[in-house]
Structure formats: structure tokens, C-alpha cells
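pasting for the record
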Amino acid sequence: MSAYSDRDAVIVGAVRTPVGKGNATGALHDVLPVDLLAHSLRELVERTGVDPAKVDDVIAGAVTQVGDQSMNIARNALLGAGLPESVPGTTVDRQCGSSQQAISFAAQGVLAGSYDVVIAAGVESMSRVVMGSSILPGSDPFGLGMAQRYPDGLVPQGISAELIAAKWGFSRSELDEFSASSHEKAARAAKDGLFDRELAPIAGLTADEIIRPDTTVETLAGLRPAFFNEAYAQRFPQIRWEITPGNSSPLSDGSAAVMITSGAAARALGLEPLARIHTTTVVGSDPLYMLTGVIPATEKALARAGLTMADIDLFEVNEAFAPVVLAWANDVFGAQGAAKGLERTNVNGGAIAIGHPLGASGARIMTTMVNALEQRDGRYALQTMCEGGGMANATIIERL
């Protein structure tokens, strides 16, 4: 652990809702996403004890900003949470990394001297707001320039995951073994109470709803490919159709919120920081493979921080699909060191087991990572997430 300066951006609180199933039977389906986000904001303010009038801004991630998640959900949620009308709010979209980007923007605002106290948050109710529903019939979000640059067309994320599995040569059994391990780790963490500190129960849901303790490689082996498409099969004959619902992250509902202050504000408010934001970065990557940005993002963050992989005690790599994390491990640790490196990656399970409520996931993962770093008495942790369109965020925190 280390000391912090008055100018540092430090995390003084982090909470999340349990993650619910993203369908009509899920425990959080009847909760409007604006109320889901308001719950995490309210809990965060109450737990830190900070006067909400001191909050300079609320920056929230949400991906599908339509219907129940439209109209600047950050502002509506903070008002619904009872924060003063003087507190502004804005909603950002960097696809799956939206609330990790919110954390970066919040930290950058503190470091620039624009904020003393700021909340970075995120929400997604995938049961109420269908993924992709913001693309209206007849609309074209890509335009002529994109069509000319990529004349063969881009592909959905599931096909990108298939391409990654094929390029790195991962077998179906390797993907399923990784996925079963995610459920095993998450189930153990839940049983041991490792999530208790971060959870803010809502609508009667007190624990993550999706984790399946009885998941095995054998049960996963029985699942059929989720993204088979004849046209893509002809275009990409190398694909072996190994991506299933079992080795993909499930549709999910949830929210999370993280309070970030300057070191000086933390001292003035009598708060004990959990960690400081050491380094933030974001990269673009090949939009066809789309999900591989976690590799250069990790490398860029480490170079910017002056650290090496050996310096990092814990890694959190969003489990959008199993081959994303396996390809990341293969490249950043090397093929011979990947298995060992994965032992300090997603130590309490990941999105395949816990869930991936798109706009909330960055803040959810940060909340889990801050607590895991303390639980394991570590110093540095690195979080990275792949994102739609070929991007990735990476953030390094240092425990205080």
C-alpha cells in the first residue's frame, strides 16, 4: 500500500446491485432502469456519508439509450435518488465499457481540478430495453464512409467471438472449461461472503441471480452454438461454431456506482480512500474482430504506468465471451504463462457467471475489483473491457 497526495483521484466508495437475469422472469425486470440506477446512487451517498450537495457531477454509462433508458438517465436517476437539484448528470456510451469510461472521465475531472467529488456509475436493464433496439427500422448508424472502408461489412459480436476462437485456436472444451471455472469462482465468492460488502439488495434480490454453482464442463458441452449463420459460415470457413450461451455472458440487469474524490477532499470529508486511480487509457482496435482491444489496452496502460504484468496483483478482464479472456491471457502472459496468469484474473468469477449488464459492467467490475484487492492484500489491480465497434478501456488502481 502507499500514501496519496491531495491531487490524486481516489475511490472512497463503491456499491452495486445484485445482477439479475435479463429477461421477463428476472428479479429486477419490474424495476425501471432509472430507479435501478437511483438505488445505487442513493446507497453510495448513504454509505460514504458525503453531503450530496458536495457532489460536483454524476457521470453514468448506459448503452441502449432508448425507451426506459432515454432522456439522460444519469440526471433523472440522481433526482430520483434525492440528490439536490444543483447536482448535474450526464450519460455516456462507450458500449460495454461505458461505466468504466465514466470512471475515467470522473478521475480526469478530479486530476484536472474540475471536480472535488464526483460519482461514476452505470446501468442497464436488458430485460426492459432490448439490446440493439436503439437502431430503428430503416436507419443506418454506419453511413457511406464506413461502407466504403469495410465493403464486406462488419459482423455482430458473437461472430467476432467465433473469429477470435478460430484465430487463437481455442477448442470448445477450453472455452467451456474457462466458463465452468467462472461459475465455480463466483459461487465460492458468494458463499464466502466476498460480495457482501459491495452489494445493495433491491426488489428482494440479495445475491447475484445468474451464478450457477452446479455448472460443469459436461453440462456446458450439451449447449448448441448460439450464432450459427449460413452466410457467415460461407464467408468465414475457419469458424468452428464453438460459441454457445454457456461460454458467453448472459443478458442481465443491474447498476453500480463509484465515488471518486481528490485526495484533499477525502481528507477534508474524513473519508478513508480504498484506492487511487493510478492510470487510465482507452484504445481502438480492429472492428471486425472487435473484442481484442483488451490486449493493446493492457499494454498501453502498463507502459503509461511504468509497470509490468508482474507488478499487477489482480486482473479483471470482462468475460463478454470466453475466447476474449483466453486470447488476452495468451498474448499478455505468453502461451506458456497464460494458465498461471489466469490464476490472478477474475478471481471472484466474471461476467459469464455474474452477468454483464452492459452500461453497468465497468462500475460493477471496479466495485468487485476494489474489494478483491483488499481481500487479497494486494497493491495493484488492472481492469480492462472489450467494447462494441473495436475499442477497449484499461484502468490501473493502487490500493491505499
